């Protein structure tokens, strides 16, 4: 009987030890899991901070590029407006209206001048190499993509590849055939003035006026396109500044 009670006592002690060990093991596992979760959280936080820093640097690079783009856009718009003034000047000249003859050098230069669209895309290229999803704000990311992939691409083609916009090759030679014989040059060979009237036939006058109309129409369309892009660039700049401020 005594042996029986001793055996029961030993079994209870063993169960008690096992329970304590089990509780200890559970506690250890919980601590390990908590440690892993903390490590993962720290790692995620570091990764997010790293990505945020990269995003911010790229946005700054894009912002700087947009500032330079604005200079080119406004310069091209200015020269296209001068081109429109040249069209009006030549229109008056070909229709025998009074013009400032000493202004011929200025308008002679810009009548058929074409331009290129210089776009600073280094920031956007950096973004593409990192992955477009780096920009977390969906609307901002879409806005950036549309500007660089659609608007910039369109104005570049319009300025540099559209045959209708090649004013020099299309119109310079024929217009110059009627103008150059009347030009007056100074001792240095610079255009000084022009002798008027041009005295051209009605058929040639109509041809020249049709050329001027076409150049005016094309430059007006280019200017409208630039105006829309200018608004988009300014809006994108503002949106980037807001995102950077919030960040």
From TrEMBL:
Record keywords, A-Z: Membrane, Transmembrane, Transmembrane helix
Transmembrane segments: 21-42
One Pfam family linked to the record: DUF6090
Designated name of the protein: Uncharacterized protein
Organism this protein belongs to: Litoribaculum gwangyangense
Organism phylogeny: Bacteria, Pseudomonadati, Bacteroidota, Flavobacteriia, Flavobacteriales
